[in-house]
Amino acid sequence: MGIDIILKIAGIGILTAIVSMILKKSDRDDVATFATLAGLIVVIVLVIDMISGLFDTIKSLLSLY
């Protein structure tokens, strides 16, 4: 789980930036904003899943069931 999640987040960020730039150049600023928000939501879901796994690991280490 080390570097692969960082590469996923970076890839999503680069892809979102490229799509946003293309849409802004074609005068579709509203769609570019939605594309950026969609990328942000995907990254937030990935991070929330990682935090959930962290809390589960901490519970199992401390035996708090």
Properties at a glance:
elongated, mainly alpha, 2 helices, 65 residues
Outline the structure in words.
The chain is mainly α and 65 residues long. The chain has one domain. 88% of the residues lie in helices and 0% in strands. The protein contains 2 helices and no strands. It has helices spanning 3-25, 29-62. Helix 1 (3-25) packs antiparallel against helix 2 (29-62). The mean pLDDT is 91.
Which secondary structure elements does this structure contain, and how are they paired or packed?
Blueprint: H1 3-25, H2 29-62
Helix pairs in contact: 1-2
The average pLDDT is 91
Rg over CA atoms: 17 Å
> What number of structural domains do the residues give?
1
Largest sheet: none
Overall shape: it is: elongated
Per DSSP, the total helix count is 2
Helix content: over 70%
Which stretches are low in confidence, meaning pLDDT under 50 for 5 or more residues running?
none
Coarse structural class: mainly alpha
Instruction: Give a count of the beta strands, DSSP E runs of length 2 or more.
Output: 0
What percentage of the residues does DSSP assign to strands (E)?
Answer: under 5%
Secondary-structure element order, N to C: HH
Distance between the termini: 25 Å
Provide a compact summary of the structure.
With 65 residues, the chain is mainly α. The chain has one domain. The chain has 2 helices and no strands.
